Amino acid sequence: MQECMVVANEASTELGRKVADDLGVPFSEMIRKCFADGETYHAFPADLGGKNLIIIGATHTDSSHQELLDLIQGGRYWNAATINVAIPYLGYSTMERTKPNSYEIPKGVTRTRQIFRARPNFVAFVDLHSEAVLHAHAGEIRTEHVWTDELVIKKIRSSGLTDYVLVSPDYGFSKRIARLASLLNCPHTAADKDRYDTDKTIVGQISSVVKGKTAIVCDDMIRTGGSIIQTAKRCLEAGAVQVAVMATHLVMAGDARERFQKSPISRVIGSDTVPGVQSDELLDVYSVAPLLADIFRRHLKIKSGLSG
Questions:
Q1: Residues 27 and 87 both lie in one domain
Q2: 62 and 142, same domain (yes or no)
Q3: What span, in angstroms and rounded, lies between the C-alpha atoms of 237 and 94?
Q4: Where does the pLDDT of residue 210 fall: very low under 50, low under 70, confident under 90, or very high at 90 and above?
Q5: How many domains does the chain have?
Q6: Cβ contacts of residue 248 below 8 Å, gap of 6+?
Q7: Is residue 267 left, alpha or beta, with left meaning phi > 0 and alpha meaning psi from -120 to 50?
Q8: pLDDT value at position 308?
Q9: Same domain for 271 and 160
Q10: Which pLDDT score is estimated for 140?
Q11: At what angle do helices 289-300 and 13-23 cross, to 10 degrees?
Q12: What is the distance between the alpha carbons of residues 141 and 116, in angstroms, rounded to a whole number?
């Protein structure tokens, strides 16, 4: 087995360290400098020629997206044997489609295409909003959509929540909720959500299946939190005794945190895919590092505790 080097874009450094620790290989800190004109210098800390390069990089900001491209291309330039990428959170992932004659740019697809054109060998995505981005290349790159189901189930079972029902804020996410509910052996339902503006939605009524139970509203991400908070209120109106939230990607944009603190939601459970998210009095955060480490361990045939 060839030696591995694990790096990360700056924002995902903490998660990169956790993945490396789980793999039992050293984490390699990139050398970075920022010049007065705003240009950024990068250097790998050691020779990566002939090594399997593992890159952890969320693309939640434009700079993080660009840095990931630089790391992939840098790996090519310095002759890494393979370049293997995990994107815990894909920025612009909700922009994978366009309306007819809108002339919109589907950045979920076009930006993922930029990543593929940098020529990594393997790219893993975590809980994608849409799998459309997996097909934004010509077939020469191996991709994998990594679901966090096992981590979610483990987290819910250890959360202390009981007699719960899983609730999807819309029918589009209901298939995954049904899958999770079957594994947890609990009921599930979905709200009727209608989007009438970029960040504005209306949530309809919730089934009475939540009556007398703990409702866990599940979604792939929380951005502004509007539809999730509306769904939580509808659950209480339908008789739920309490409401918690489970979402993989805790973007928490704008005043989302304040809105949740003022809402009837008891807690927000999610992962560390978005850089900087940590557990506190509102958030209960678990790490996707073990899941990513397992993906690379299987893909690269890495034996635990060995770096070469």
A1: yes
A2: yes
A3: 30
A4: very high
A5: 2
A6: 126, 127, 148, 152, 220, 221, 270, 271, 273
A7: beta
A8: 41
A9: yes
A10: 85
A11: 50
A12: 7
